[in-house]
Recover the amino acids of this structure.
């Protein structure tokens, strides 16, 4: 156990609040990413379906009101578990999903970016989540790996804007994109959030985060804890020991301190790990500690 176990999560403990620009959607900055609710490799049902349901219910009971998902997780499985656990959804819960990918039978991750595929993806999300409209849909650019790649996204964003005008989507976000692609999308529609790879060791989006903050747009880092290769850092461990926290809690707390437009969606299939993640919202990092943590990116690049 750490000094942050057993927390009574409240407004401050969940990182404060953020309102997506131009919307009535206000969420706690500490959210939940549902990808790990599916089976191994984000494929098929989980080994323990009851535990998956319990994690979602625990998250909402703790005050989480921002859940990130996609119908290509599973595929379909994660959204179906969310519906089973939480439908009818509590007032104020914001579910953010994403389009742009598909999972064929060989379990690979492939693009699904034609107008027909995007429209079908919206209807899959609506059906499996049990919704009449989707709060926020991110267009996820499927490049090679998790890095960004330049290239026009105008056709795909235009399709989402048409679906928004039809009332099937309320708001639009982007994922795995460059500053150039964001600017291109903003000529077509309002962008309320951007979801990219970023954490205390991978700082390539620093300038982008600051620009989005100036515009009031949310930045949602995926793999905030390193993803499939968890963050390892002697500095992170040293700071965690001093604070009576875990290294992962410190990594999450650093993100909350990094910029007020950063929203977190750490994922887990464990109630205990969920509580540990949420408790990171309680950590206060001094300017000296933040400066120490800022050096981790240089360590990682060395």
């Amino acid at each position: 156990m750490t000094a942050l176990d057993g927390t009574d999560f409240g407004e401050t403990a969940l990182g404060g609040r953020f309102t997506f620009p131009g919307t009535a959607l206000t969420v706690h900055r500490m959210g939940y990413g549902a990808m790990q609710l599916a089976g191994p490799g984000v494929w098929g049902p989980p080994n323990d379906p009851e535990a998956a349901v319990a994690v979602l219910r625990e998250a909402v009971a703790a005050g989480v009101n921002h859940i990130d998902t996609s119908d290509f997780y599973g595929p379909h499985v994660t959204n179906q578990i969310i519906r089973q656990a939480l439908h009818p959804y509590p007032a104020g819960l914001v579910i953010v999903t994403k389009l742009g990918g598909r999972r064929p039978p060989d379990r690979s991750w492939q693009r699904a970016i034609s107008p027909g595929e995007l429209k079908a993806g919206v209807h899959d999300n609506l059906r499996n989540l049990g919704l009449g409209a989707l709060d926020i849909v991110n267009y996820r650019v499927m490049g090679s790996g998790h890095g960004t790649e330049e290239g026009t996204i105008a056709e795909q964003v235009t399709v989402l804007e048409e679906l928004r005008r039809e009332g099937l989507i309320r708001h639009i976000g982007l994922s795995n994109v460059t500053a150039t692609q964001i600017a291109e999308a903003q000529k077509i529609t309002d962008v309320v959030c951007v979801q990219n790879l970023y954490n205390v060791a991978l700082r390539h989006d620093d300038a982008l985060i600051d620009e989005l903050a100036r515009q009031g747009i949310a930045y949602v880092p995926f793999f905030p804890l390193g993803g499939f290769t968890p963050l390892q850092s002697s500095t992170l461990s040293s700071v965690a020991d001093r604070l009576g926290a875990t290294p992962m809690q410190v990594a999450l707390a650093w993100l909350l301190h990094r910029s007020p437009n950063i929203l977190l969606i750490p994922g887990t299939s464990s109630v205990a790990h969920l509580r540990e993640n949420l408790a990171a919202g309680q950590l206060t990092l001094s300017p000296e500690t933040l400066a120490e943590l800022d050096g981790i990116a240089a360590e990682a690049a060395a």
